Amino acid sequence: MRLPYRIVRPLARIALKIYFRKIYLTGLENIPKDKPVILAANHPTAFLEPCLLACTLPRPLHFLVRGDFFQKELHRQLLESLHMMPIYRLKDLGLKGVKNNYSALDRAYDLLAQNKMILILAEGKTEHEKRLRPIQKGTARMAIGAIEKYPHLEVQIVPIGVNYSDVLNFRSDVMLDIGQAMDVRSYLTATQQHSAKTIKQITTDLKNQLEQQVVIIQEISDETLTEQLFQLAKRKTRPFPIQMADKSPLKRQKSIANRVNSMNHEEKQAIKVQVDQFFKKLSALNLQPESLQDIKKPTIFYYFKLVVGYIPFLLGYFVNLPPLYFGHWWAENKVEEVVFYASIKASFALAAYLILGLLLLLIALLIGSPYFYIGLLAIPLLGLFSLYFWEFKQEGEQQAKIAKLDPTTIKQLIQEKGDILKRFSEEI
Fold first, then answer.
1. Domains defined along the chain, listed by start
2. Strand pairing of 182-183 and 61-66?
3. What's the confidence (pLDDT) of residue 91?
4. Which of 159, 179, 183 is nearest to 43 (CA)?
């Protein structure tokens, strides 16, 4: 594992656990520990999927990245130090670039021979959508190519579904589901190792597995309705732990999406009217769907914590705001394609935070006062306090609004929500 990877990985892990409120990781036991593994994931954002998997999986991860990013020597050295390898597309650098893939694939084969783990974004193209795009044949070709070079290898293709609740917004959730490993050797025969038929069969089986792990909204016109239903079905969770091995959120979303996909036009129109009316009621009362769970009137202790925590909250908020705002500003003003939005937002905020930290550390070294070091350490701690204090405050405000409603209204809202969800799954 190279030094820059060792340094960046824990920092990125912290950043991701701040950006996302919950990271659900399931199926970790499906990754073989003593065999070469090709992870095949879907690709809804620019580069959050590689970051998430590198930071949540125990084994170091190597990535295949667009070759045009490697054209400058400085960029090449930096990317390679982070375990990235170039893969060239015809539209990027033409035939000259594609020819370079032979050496890139050879490097991948060598890594697999060392029982390393390589990530391939199997769709081959980034689209910010909750559906699975056609799976490319590159995953199967790499696996078979590695076995052809090293006949003893037991290459495993492991599908991973990456599902975001709302990746464009800070403090959303992500669900990572690891499927059953596919033993590539079991597809091969003595006479047809690299045949088109074998590659097609591996690719088809990979697609079928990923379809079980990815939330799929088939029709674009159904996205708003399905997202509203996801909000209604979401259950309130505690802040910690941030990373959990809980598959129930993914099961709920898949159950809802599959039900919407199977509805006819008349059914969809009827449920759309019902859901729209319910959300209008919530909007008029300035309530969130989650606030209808576990209803409790705020206690005196809640207000006491608000008063005591407000000053450190303000300190943490204003000290940590500049780097976070920089990431948000850059994404809002410089990013043209939505697939890059979340990735740029998170990575630029982290980079700005590191620069600020190094600048303050330099000042601390020049001043030499121990109190400045204490203050430097307090900045991220106050930032974390501010984040969770804000969420604590928001939840309390929601409960206070509900407490002001008459019991009949509350009962009616809960009943309407339950009636909507009963139409989709008993598990919800």
1. 3-214 (3.40.1130.10), 223-285+412-422 (no CATH), 300-404 (no CATH)
2. unpaired
3. 61
4. 159
